[in-house]
Amino acid sequence: MRTYDSQLASLTRRSHAIISGDYMASLATADVCDVNTGHLSNGDLRVLPPVFKIYGQRRAFSGPITTLKVFDGNVLVREILETRGEGRVLVIDGGGSMRCALLGGNLAQLAQNMGWAGIVVNGCIRDVDEINGCDIGVRALASHPRKPNKKCQSEKHVPVYIGDMMIREGE
Ligand SMILES: O=C([O-])CC(=O)C(=O)O
Protein backbone atom coordinates (compact mmCIF):
# COMPACT_ATOMS: atom_id res chain seq x y z
CA MET A 1 0.00 0.00 0.00
CA ARG A 2 1.24 3.48 -0.76
CA THR A 3 0.18 6.29 1.47
CA TYR A 4 1.43 9.85 1.23
CA ASP A 5 1.69 12.66 3.73
CA SER A 6 3.29 16.04 3.86
CA GLN A 7 6.07 15.61 6.30
CA LEU A 8 9.79 16.05 6.00
CA ALA A 9 12.21 13.47 7.20
CA SER A 10 15.96 13.55 7.44
CA LEU A 11 17.85 10.30 7.11
CA THR A 12 21.32 10.51 8.58
CA ARG A 13 22.70 7.25 7.32
CA ARG A 14 21.63 7.82 3.76
CA SER A 15 22.93 11.39 3.90
CA HIS A 16 19.73 12.64 2.34
CA ALA A 17 16.82 14.83 3.21
CA ILE A 18 13.47 13.44 2.17
CA ILE A 19 10.74 15.93 1.61
CA SER A 20 7.42 14.81 0.26
CA GLY A 21 4.25 16.52 -0.79
CA ASP A 22 0.83 14.95 -1.12
CA TYR A 23 2.27 12.72 -3.78
CA MET A 24 5.75 11.43 -4.36
CA ALA A 25 6.34 9.06 -7.22
CA SER A 26 8.87 6.74 -5.68
CA LEU A 27 8.62 7.19 -1.94
CA ALA A 28 5.83 7.19 0.59
CA THR A 29 7.04 8.83 3.78
CA ALA A 30 4.48 6.95 5.89
CA ASP A 31 5.88 3.67 4.58
CA VAL A 32 9.44 4.89 5.24
CA CYS A 33 8.44 5.54 8.86
CA ASP A 34 6.66 2.20 9.21
CA VAL A 35 9.65 0.17 8.08
CA ASN A 36 12.20 2.24 10.01
CA THR A 37 10.83 2.31 13.54
CA GLY A 38 14.28 1.54 14.92
CA HIS A 39 15.81 4.47 13.07
CA LEU A 40 12.95 6.69 14.27
CA SER A 41 13.67 5.66 17.85
CA ASN A 42 17.39 6.26 17.71
CA GLY A 43 17.13 9.53 15.77
CA ASP A 44 18.72 8.38 12.52
CA LEU A 45 15.36 9.06 10.89
CA ARG A 46 13.77 12.35 11.88
CA VAL A 47 10.42 13.84 10.92
CA LEU A 48 9.93 17.57 11.13
CA PRO A 49 6.75 19.00 12.63
CA PRO A 50 4.09 19.09 9.87
CA VAL A 51 3.83 22.88 9.86
CA PHE A 52 5.06 23.67 6.36
CA LYS A 53 3.08 24.98 3.43
CA ILE A 54 3.95 23.80 -0.07
CA TYR A 55 5.20 26.28 -2.68
CA GLY A 56 7.09 26.01 -5.96
CA GLN A 57 6.61 23.74 -8.96
CA ARG A 58 8.19 20.70 -7.33
CA ARG A 59 5.82 19.29 -4.77
CA ALA A 60 8.38 16.64 -3.87
CA PHE A 61 12.12 17.12 -3.77
CA SER A 62 15.23 15.69 -2.16
CA GLY A 63 18.96 16.22 -2.02
CA PRO A 64 21.94 16.76 0.24
CA ILE A 65 21.32 19.55 2.74
CA THR A 66 23.04 22.90 3.08
CA THR A 67 22.15 24.61 6.35
CA LEU A 68 21.81 28.26 7.24
CA LYS A 69 20.77 29.96 10.46
CA VAL A 70 19.57 33.56 10.20
CA PHE A 71 17.80 36.18 12.27
CA ASP A 72 15.35 38.19 10.11
CA GLY A 73 17.97 38.76 7.42
CA ASN A 74 18.84 37.05 4.15
CA VAL A 75 22.21 38.26 2.87
CA LEU A 76 23.68 34.79 3.30
CA VAL A 77 20.65 33.24 1.59
CA ARG A 78 21.58 35.10 -1.59
CA GLU A 79 25.27 34.30 -1.15
CA ILE A 80 24.55 30.57 -0.89
CA LEU A 81 22.01 30.51 -3.72
CA GLU A 82 24.56 32.18 -5.98
CA THR A 83 26.62 28.98 -5.74
CA ARG A 84 25.80 25.95 -7.86
CA GLY A 85 23.07 23.93 -6.17
CA GLU A 86 23.76 20.64 -7.94
CA GLY A 87 20.50 19.25 -6.62
CA ARG A 88 21.02 20.32 -3.03
CA VAL A 89 18.33 21.47 -0.59
CA LEU A 90 18.88 24.68 1.37
CA VAL A 91 17.43 24.51 4.89
CA ILE A 92 17.05 27.98 6.41
CA ASP A 93 16.46 28.16 10.12
CA GLY A 94 14.79 31.51 10.58
CA GLY A 95 13.67 30.64 14.10
CA GLY A 96 10.06 30.46 12.92
CA SER A 97 10.00 34.28 12.61
CA MET A 98 6.70 35.84 11.53
CA ARG A 99 8.27 39.30 11.29
CA CYS A 100 9.41 39.34 7.63
CA ALA A 101 10.06 37.12 4.60
CA LEU A 102 13.44 35.43 4.14
CA LEU A 103 12.90 34.41 0.51
CA GLY A 104 11.15 36.06 -2.42
CA GLY A 105 10.67 35.64 -6.13
CA ASN A 106 14.13 36.86 -7.12
CA LEU A 107 15.94 34.46 -4.85
CA ALA A 108 13.69 31.58 -5.88
CA GLN A 109 14.47 32.33 -9.52
CA LEU A 110 18.16 32.39 -8.65
CA ALA A 111 17.83 29.03 -6.90
CA GLN A 112 16.14 27.55 -9.96
CA ASN A 113 18.80 28.93 -12.30
CA MET A 114 21.63 27.64 -10.11
CA GLY A 115 20.23 24.12 -9.95
CA TRP A 116 18.95 23.88 -6.38
CA ALA A 117 16.34 21.17 -5.79
CA GLY A 118 14.53 23.05 -3.07
CA ILE A 119 14.49 25.36 -0.07
CA VAL A 120 12.97 24.72 3.34
CA VAL A 121 12.33 27.91 5.32
CA ASN A 122 11.55 27.81 9.01
CA GLY A 123 10.06 31.26 8.58
CA CYS A 124 8.22 33.20 5.90
CA ILE A 125 8.46 33.83 2.16
CA ARG A 126 6.92 36.43 -0.15
CA ASP A 127 6.11 36.82 -3.88
CA VAL A 128 4.17 33.56 -3.67
CA ASP A 129 2.97 33.65 -7.28
CA GLU A 130 6.54 34.11 -8.54
CA ILE A 131 7.85 31.34 -6.30
CA ASN A 132 5.08 29.02 -7.46
CA GLY A 133 6.27 29.58 -11.03
CA CYS A 134 9.80 28.39 -10.25
CA ASP A 135 10.99 24.85 -10.94
CA ILE A 136 12.12 24.20 -7.39
CA GLY A 137 10.38 22.95 -4.26
CA VAL A 138 9.81 25.37 -1.40
CA ARG A 139 8.44 24.73 2.07
CA ALA A 140 7.76 27.62 4.42
CA LEU A 141 5.51 28.49 7.33
CA ALA A 142 3.60 31.35 5.67
CA SER A 143 3.86 34.35 3.38
CA HIS A 144 4.72 37.81 4.70
CA PRO A 145 4.97 41.01 2.63
CA ARG A 146 7.86 42.64 4.53
CA LYS A 147 11.39 42.26 3.21
CA PRO A 148 14.17 41.07 5.51
CA ASN A 149 17.08 43.04 6.94
CA LYS A 150 20.21 43.13 4.90
CA LYS A 151 22.36 43.07 8.02
CA CYS A 152 21.91 40.29 10.50
CA GLN A 153 23.81 37.65 12.35
CA SER A 154 23.86 34.45 10.34
CA GLU A 155 25.77 31.21 10.30
CA LYS A 156 26.13 28.77 7.44
CA HIS A 157 26.83 25.02 7.47
CA VAL A 158 25.95 24.72 11.18
CA PRO A 159 23.52 22.25 12.75
CA VAL A 160 20.05 23.84 12.90
CA TYR A 161 16.89 22.94 14.79
CA ILE A 162 13.35 22.92 13.51
CA GLY A 163 11.15 22.16 16.48
CA ASP A 164 13.31 19.78 18.46
CA MET A 165 14.69 18.10 15.33
CA MET A 166 18.31 18.69 14.45
CA ILE A 167 19.35 18.96 10.80
CA ARG A 168 23.00 18.80 9.81
CA GLU A 169 24.92 20.01 6.81
CA GLY A 170 25.33 17.21 4.27
CA GLU A 171 22.49 14.97 5.47
O1 LIG B 1 15.35 40.18 -2.28
C1 LIG B 1 15.03 39.78 -1.17
O2 LIG B 1 15.65 40.05 -0.15
C2 LIG B 1 13.83 38.91 -1.02
C3 LIG B 1 12.94 39.08 -2.16
O3 LIG B 1 12.00 39.82 -2.12
C4 LIG B 1 13.23 38.35 -3.40
O4 LIG B 1 14.01 37.39 -3.37
O5 LIG B 1 12.63 38.69 -4.43
From TrEMBL:
Its EC number is 4.1.1.112, 4.1.3.17. It is an enzyme of class 4 (lyase). InterPro entries: RraA, RraA/RraA-like, RraA/RraA-like_sf. Catalyzes the aldol cleavage of 4-hydroxy-4-methyl-2-oxoglutarate (HMG) into 2 molecules of pyruvate. Also contains a secondary oxaloacetate (OAA) decarboxylase activity due to the common pyruvate enolate transition state formed following C-C bond cleavage in the retro-aldol and decarboxylation reactions. It catalyses: oxaloacetate + H(+) = pyruvate + CO2; 4-hydroxy-4-methyl-2-oxoglutarate = 2 pyruvate. Transmembrane segments: none annotated. One of its GO terms (molecular function) is metal ion binding. Its cofactor is a divalent metal cation; Mg(2+). Homotrimer. Belongs to the class II aldolase/RraA-like family. It comes from Solanum verrucosum. This is 4-hydroxy-4-methyl-2-oxoglutarate aldolase. Keywords: Lyase, Magnesium, Metal-binding. One of its GO terms (biological process) is regulation of RNA metabolic process.
